[in-house]
Amino acid sequence: MGEQIAAQCRLFLDGLCLGLLLGFVYDWLRLRRNLIRGGHIWMGIEDFFYCIFSGLMMFGLFYRDNSGVVRWFALAAAGIGFFLYRKGPSRIFLPGLTYLLTKAWELVKKPIIFLGRGLKNLHKSVTIKKSLVKTASDSKGRREREKIKNKIRKGREN
């Protein structure tokens, strides 16, 4: 009898810990939603896969601890764990991490944009026109290459 009660207490505590874990995982989804805006369809897809993940985790808990028998108090414990996480650590974790990642992006964004513009300008200056690629026996291609070379030389002189 004492072993059964201990097993049920363990199942309750495991359910509580699983609820905390599921709350933490859901906070990461919420963090992604705070940082990268998506549509309602994308949010629905994320929630669908989160529900599948949660169901598999609950099934694993019941299968491991209770031979697959569903115990309502373990489901309630998972719900309580999720609720406690949302009312406790989540109130600090989510806004804090959102703020830190937003500030980090602000620091990194300007150099990335600067480098992107520089690479774009470099690409424009290095681009080879089709007429330069033609064969040497092509007289029209040769004339075009000469015109372009002369334009480049005149541009350097000015």
Automatic annotation (TrEMBL):
InterPro entries: YabQ. The chain crosses the membrane at residues 12-29, 41-63, 69-85. NCBIfam families: spore_yabQ. Residues 137-158 are annotated as: Disordered. This is Spore cortex protein YabQ. Keywords: Membrane, Transmembrane, Transmembrane helix. It comes from the Bacteria.
